[in-house]
Amino acid sequence: MKTSLKNTTADDSLIIYAELNGAEIRAAQRRLKAGKLVRIVPGVLSASPEKEWPTIIALHRIRLLAALFPGAVIGFRSAFKGGIPADGVIHLTYSYNRVVELPGLKVILVKGHGQVAGDQPMSGRDLYFPSQARMLMENLTASRGAIKKAVGPIAVEDRLVSIYESRGPEALNRVRDEARTLAPLLGFDKEYQVLNELIGTILGTTSAQLGTAAGKALAAGTPFDADRLALFETLAAVLRVVPLVQKASPTTTGTARINFAFLESYFSNFIEGTEFDLSEARQIVLEGKIIDQRPKDSHDILGVFRQAINPGWVNQSMAIDEAVLHQLQQRHADLMKERPEASPGDFNDRENFAGNTRFVSPKNVRGTLIEGSKLLPSVPPGMARALLAMFIVSEVHPFIDGNGRLARLVMNAELSVVNASRIIVPTLFREEYLDCLRVLTRQGKPEPFITAMQHIQQWTAAFDYTDLDRMISQMKACNAFEKSRMQYQLLNISVLGAAST
User: Fold this and answer.
1) N or C: which end of the chain has fewer CB within 10 A?
2) Whether pLDDT at 362 is above 90
3) Same structural domain for residues 437 and 482?
C-alpha cells in the first residue's frame, strides 16, 4: 500500500515522483526540462551536483527504497546486518528479480513473498524489516554468485548462541515457534529443519553437528563469553610479539621473601579497600596477632601472605583446560576460608558488576576460564603469561569476592616460576593500575596495561627487601603509601640517591 508520507526536506536534493501529486510531478518535469533538475533514475530527480548523489541516497536510503520498491522487505544478508548496506549492496525481497544500480548503492531484488506477520515497517514507510525467524531462515538458503545473499549456517549459529546468552532459552523457543509457522508460507521447509536442529542442539534436546566454538561449548554444557575470549586473544596477540622487560627476583634470602610477601599482601588488600595501619598489618602477618575488632580483615591479609610465601602456591603456574577450574577454586577456598559469606571455592551464582563493567555471566564462567586458559601456552612464560593469566581471572571475576587479590596472586605465581620479580602495586599506583585495566576491558587496548605493569615491576624489583624497616622507609620516601595522584608522584628508588641508603 502506498504511504502518504511526503518529503519534508526544505531543499531539492532528492525529489521522488512517488511522493508527489500530479501537479507537483508536472512542475518537477518542467524544471527538469529547463535544466534546473537532473534525473538520477526514472522517477527520482535532484538539484544537487552528481558527486553529492551517493551521500544524498545514503541519507535518504529508507525513504528512496520505499518509494522505488513499495512493499519490499529488507532481506537476507542485509537484514542479518541490521538493514545497513554491506560493501555498497543491499538485498530486498520483492515481486521480481533484478539488480538496480543507484549512486553509491546496488539494490539486489530477490523474488519472494512480501510482508508477513512479524515484519515491521521501517520509519513508518512501505518498506519492511523481517522478523527474526524469517531473517534467520533466509540466511540458511543456498547462495550462489559473486555476491552471496545469505550469511550461511555458521553465522546463523553464532547469532542463535548470542540470542541464547542474552535472552535465554525462551527466546530461542519463540524463534523456533515463529519459524515453524512461517516456513510453509515462505517456502522455507528445508531451512526450517536446519534452524530447528541448530536450536535444538544449543538447547540440548537434539545433537546436530555445530560449527562454532561457542555453539559447541554451549551444547557441551560449558558455554563461554565469546566477547571476553576475543578480548583475551587481543591481549595475547600483542604479548606474543612485543618483547617485555622482565626483572629478576630481588629476594634471594628467606627473610627478604617474607618481607616481600608481607608488603605484597598489605598493598594487594589495600587496593580492595582492606586498609590497615602498617604497624597493625605487621602484627597480624609477622606476629600472628589478629585484630579483635577486625578478625575477617585480618585473615584477608593473612590469606594473601600465605599464598605469597608458601612454595606450593608461589610456584604454581596457572593450569590449562578444565584443570584451571579446580585450581582456582582451591586457591580461592584457601584465600577466603575465614569469609563464609564469600562462598570460598564456589564460583559466583549471581551477576557481578564493578561500576559500569559487567563481568562474565555465571553460566559462562567455567567455559570462559577453560577457553581462556588455553591461550596461556601461546604466549612466552614469565611476564607475558603473568599478565594474560591475571587479566583472565580479573575479567571473568569468577567468585563473589576476592577476585582482584586472586588475579594478582596468579600473576605473581607466573613470575615466580621463572624466578622473575613478583609485582607489588603500591597504593599511589592503584588508580593507574585500575585505569589501564578499564581501558583494556572497554576499549580493547592492551598497550597501556602492558606498559604500566612493566613499569611497576621494574619499580618493585629496585628495592632491597632484606631489612623491612629500611625498605618501608624507602617506599614512603617514594610516596608508595600516598593516595592522591594529584598531590604526589610515585618515585623510583634511584631518584632518592644517597638519601635512601
Assistant:
1) N
2) no
3) yes
CB-based burial of residue 30 (10 Å sphere; 0-12 exposed, 13-18 middle, 19+ buried)? exposed
**How would you label 72-93 residue by residue, b for 16+ Cβ within 10 Å and e otherwise?**
bbbbbbbbbeebebeeeebbbb
Note if the pTM is more than 0.90.
Answer: no
Q: Please say which residue of 77, 98, 130 terminates a domain.
A: 130
Could you tell me the three cell numbers for 35? 535544466
Report CA-CA distances (Å) from 68 to 64, 356, 498: 6, 45, 82
pLDDT at 412: 98
Res 353: pLDDT = 63
Verify that 426 and 447 share a domain, yes or no. yes
pLDDT one-digit tens code per residue, 13-39: 999 999 999 999 999 999 999 999 999
Asked if residue 143 belongs to a domain, the reply is no
- Phi first, then psi, for residue 246 (nearest 5°) are -140, 110
Residue of higher predicted confidence among 143 and 251: 251
- Distance CA(286)–CA(303), nearest Å, equals 13
pLDDT, tens only, 439-461: 999 999 999 999 999 999 999 99
**DSSP H or E run through 102:** strand 98-102
Q: Rounded distance, CA 386 to CA 229, Å?
A: 17
The Cα–Cα gap between 480 and 4 comes to 70
Q: How many domains does the chain have?
A: 3
CA atoms within 13 A on the CB side of 308: 33
Q: What is the CATH number of the domain that holds 268?
A: 1.10.3290.10
Q: Residue 72's pLDDT band (boundaries 50, 70, 90)?
A: very high
Q: What is the DSSP string of 105-170?
A: EEEEEEE-----TT-EESTTSSEEE--HHHHHHHTTS---SSS-S---HHHHHHHHHHHHHHH-HH
Q: Could you count the other beta carbons within 10 Å of the beta carbon of residue 399?
A: 25
Residue whose C-alpha cell is 581501558? 439
- Does the residue 202 lie in any domain? yes
Mean of pLDDT values over 255-270: 95
Strand partners, 127: 72
Q: What is the per-residue DSSP string for 363-394?
A: GGHHHHHHHHHTTGGGS-TTHHHHHHHHHHHH
Residue 178 burial (CB count, 10 A): 18
Element (H, E) at 41: strand 38-41
Q: Which amino acid is at 32?
A: L
Other CB atoms within 10 A of residue 282 CB? 17
